[in-house]
Amino acid sequence: MTIPDTARRLLESGPLCDACLGRPVADRSFGLGNDDRGRALRTTIALEDDEDFEPDTPADCWVCEGYCGTFDELADTIAATLEGIEFETYQIGTRVPPLVEENDRLLREDAGLPEDAGEPLKREVNREVGRRLGERTDAEFDLSRPDVLIVIDLEAFDPIAGDAVTSHAVDVQINPAFVYGRYRKLERDIPQTEWPCRECGGSGAQLGDDGEEPCTYCDGSGYLYDVSVEQVVRPHVVDAMDGDEGTFHGAGREDVDALMLGAGRPFVLEVKRPTRRTPDVEALEVAINDAADGAVEVEGLRLATHEMVERVKELDASKQYRADVRLASPVDEDTFRAALEALEGTTVEQYTPERVDHRRANLTRERTVYDIDGELLEPTRAQIRVHGEGGLYIKELISGDNGRTEPSVAGLLETGAEVTALDVLGVDGEDEPFEDDDYFR
Ligand SMILES: [Zn+2]
Ligand SMILES: [Zn+2]
User: Fold this and answer.
1) The Cα angle at residue 141 between residues 304 and 126, in degrees rounded to 5
2) CA of 265 to the centre of ligand 2 (A)
3) How far apart are CA 397 and CA 419, in angstroms?
4) Distance from C-alpha of 381 to C-alpha of 377, rounded to nearest angstrom
5) Which of 213, 225, 336, 392 is most solvent-facing, going by the fewest CB within 10 Å?
6) How far is it, in rounded angstroms, from Cα 275 to Cα 241?
7) Are 405 and 393 in contact (CB under 8 A)?
8) Closest CA to 248 of 224, 272, 225
9) From ligand 1's centre to the CA of 101, what distance in Å?
10) Catalytic member of 255, 401, 423, 428
11) CB–CB of 229/195 below 8 Å?
12) Parallel, antiparallel, or unpaired: how do β-strands 364-378 and 245-250 relate?
């Protein structure tokens, strides 16, 4: 069947707007709109049959019931809804009323075309409104990971009844925005993320004889610690991006009582429903550091992609530590040196330490000690620095963990060894740095 014959069959079904006439042959002539195709077919038929040219408007169209005439109005409404929201990319989805979808199917069936001929109305709306929105906003259509996702609900208005398109027909979902950085923790007893009180579950209240009263365990704060890295960083970033809430993602975490020094530990702050996506990160850094007042410092803040969250969580990282060590009995310098030399570059077998969360499976892991050195400060006191493969338990490497870690400093010294203070000096990707331009905006 020739294309004009197909068009004749389609027109026999009833009055059709140009877009609905062109849509079943949408696979023809890339670069045309369906309304262009429909108009051309209608013109061709009028010329071939020498009949008067009689266009039908969307308001007469039995298939789309007028929706194909609302693309401009929809784009205007979406642009107005997005006013004040910063975005560079967008995606559009459309809910088509089931009866209209059925019309679109019947049109093909009546004309003897395959059910999936051309393209579905839904896709036409997405594309046509998307194109118009691009012209109104300078933003780009992006199918993979748009800043905003717009869902059009055609059922919210009836063009044939003369309804105007209102914001009820438009739902805007704002995808999160991400800021990457590194933090240092310069005081002890600061957890990385906020730590709700286990007695009151974070509510800060308990039930007393006279009803609710402040929780005695946390003094009513709801938290076990007054401050966390997350609580220092999050409010400033959420505020700068004018978002609803934020989530802190760290590249692992150090113990609550450990300092995080050196170049700091990578993190990503995820901001939900941001209306700004390009805050001044340098000003943000200053604001965080001023407010943290020396307890925590951040540096190298950059706008990141959502993939950076997985990268900071999953990238294999080696760690550098500094441990203050107390020895159970005096050790001489030669013995101390020999123990460190024996550990340098060696592979350590560590059975899951007793102090580790019991939900973690118990098993023996092998981890490499890349570098180790240190000083014997007194016969029973030393400072040891270790650069180890990710997952190496340092406290156990020193203490031996009652034989669960082998070899160990304590084992080689043949005396008890205990870490009294542990600081992290570096967290770096094993094979590549965390900072990769592909993960920044
Ligand atoms: Zn139509
Ligand atoms: Zn409490």
Assistant:
1) 135
2) 29
3) 10
4) 6
5) 213
6) 6
7) yes
8) 272
9) 11
10) 255
11) no
12) unpaired
Sequence-distant (6+) residues with CB within 8 A of 242 are 274, 275, 276
Per-residue pLDDT of the chain (441 residues; tens, 9 = 90+): 788 889 999 999 999 999 999 999 988 777 788 999 999 999 988 888 877 777 788 889 999 999 999 999 999 999 999 999 999 999 999 999 999 999 999 999 999 999 999 999 999 999 999 999 999 998 999 888 899 999 999 999 999 999 999 999 999 999 999 999 999 999 999 999 988 888 898 899 998 888 899 998 888 988 888 889 999 999 999 999 999 999 999 999 999 999 999 999 999 999 999 999 999 999 999 999 999 999 999 999 999 999 999 999 999 999 999 999 999 999 999 999 999 999 999 999 999 887 776 676 788 999 999 999 999 999 999 999 999 999 999 999 999 999 999 999 999 999 999 999 999 999 999 999 999 999 999
Among the bound ligands, name the one nearest to the CA of residue 204: 2
* Residue 10 CA to ligand 1 centre (angstroms): 12
In the residue annotation, 255 being an active-site residue is answered as yes
> What is the whole-number distance in angstroms between the Cα of residue 214 and the centre of ligand 2?
8
Beta-carbon neighbours within 5 Å of ion ligand 1 = 17, 20, 58, 61, 63-64, 68
Ligand positioned closest to the Cα atom of 206: 2
**pTM (2 d.p.):** 0.86
Q: Which helix (H) or strand (E) holds 317?
A: strand 317-327
The ligand with the least distance to the CA atom of 215 is 2
368: tokens are 């490499």
What span, in angstroms and rounded, lies between the C-alpha atoms of 422 and 185?
12
Residues whose CB is less than 8 angstroms from the CB of residue 168 and which lie 6 or more positions away in sequence, other chains included: 153, 156, 157
> Which amino acid, one-letter code, is at 373?
D
Going from the Cα of 250 to the center of ligand 1, the distance in angstroms, rounded, reads: 52
Distance 235 CA to ligand 2 centre (A): 22
Centroid of ligand 1 to alpha carbon of 128 (angstroms): 14
Which ligand neighbours the alpha carbon of 217 most closely?
Answer: 2
Which ligand is closest to the CA of 63, given by its number?
1
Closest CA to 70 of 81, 85, 57: 57
